[in-house]
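#lab-general

N.A. 3:47 PM
ok so I finally got the sequence cleaned up, no stray characters, all 469 residues accounted for. can someone with queue access submit it? mine expired

B.Y. 3:52 PM
send it over

N.A. 3:53 PM
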Amino acid sequence: MSENLSRSASPALPAAVIPAAIPVSLLNRLARERLESAFPLCWVAGEISNLTRAASGHVYFSLKDSVAQVRCVMFRNRAQILGWRLENGQHIEARVLVTLYEARGDFQLNVEAARRAGVGNLYEQFLRLKDKLEREGLFAADAKRGLPAFPHRIGIVTSPQAAALRDVLTTLGRRAPHASIVLYPTPVQGGGAAPQIAAAVRGAGKRGECDVLIVCRGGGSIEDLWAFNDEDVARAIRACPIPTVSGIGHETDFTIADFAADRRAATPTAAAELAAPEQAALLARLGDLQSALLRQIGRKHGSLAQQLDWLAQRLQHPEQQLARQREKLLNLRRRLDAGLAQSGARGRGALAVITRRLLLARPDTARHGRRAESLAPQLRAAWQQTVQRQSAHLAHLHAGLAHLNPVAVLARGYSIVTDERGEIVRDAEGLEPSGEISVNFHRGRARATLTSIEKDECIFPVAGSEAPD
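B.Y. 4:20 PM
back already:
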């Protein structure tokens, strides 16, 4: 038994690992792994039955055909992005992962995505057209126009027999009874509906009689709404000179016309609410603005009245103002006269003080002149004595200089001897035989060559000594 099980088990688990008797949990895990590896993600078609929604948000149901059924689960995160509501009896195509719920051993399909049966090709066409027009910039946000705040005439493009028309008219009658309605009738379903919808939109744009245009129809399957996924309809809406509001299907339904319109509403009723502001709300807003205006006028009136009272208190007769100015002028004149008198008195006092100080500081020139005359003979006598004394001193210095003059010494018969370097010879010690000397006389000079030198002899006897032999 274990050998047969090991051959049918996952190749990743060797036979030696599997015991003789395996637990149920291991069996279910091995079966789940084999199922998930054998079946990649695939599309399965069937009818929904036994659908239940858990408090956790997960959706449990069965897919069945005429001969079989299989359990399915769509987890909350997948169900939230589905875009439409699963119901019993719906025929769908589900993209599933084939697996096994280990806790109960139930074979089931984990649903990753779902689409209504038979609409797969239509949905792909929808995506291709949406991508094409989006790349062209037909859905650009900056090309969207704002809706008029107070439309007087509202156009509706829809079928006269559509229930959506009654909902729109009821809403407009309640919210904006003052606005007139223009209907542009057109089929909204079936073959040939798309060209007629586009023609109705173009006709409304050419006539230009409306302030805003509503393009609407009630809910239905993707086939029912397919006329609004037409390229011609989208281009007509985008080219329409009138701001457009689309209200097609239910909240989860999206069409190409929704992307092309200036505003998209979840339902036809919501489209009517977007196109026409509620009259009662406008009247209430108008009443609030009127009350605020009256309050503002009242406050302004009170402020101006208070300002008028204040100005009236300040207002005086011109004669009173002139009298007050004359009194002020007299006071200023009295103050000026008093100030001038005080300033003159202070100036005269200061001048008297300066005059006295000047008289006290003025020198006595007569007395100083007499003293100068008395001192003049003394000055002349002292000057003569100083000149005589300095002249005698100068004569004494002149005699001393004459006595010390070397020229006078040379005149008495002396001479000055210099060597070859021009230095004065004072001693024979520094001379050498055959050397040359210069002899300077009182008048003239002679050059001589030495023949002999007597260094220790003196030609003039020293006083008190005997002459040499």
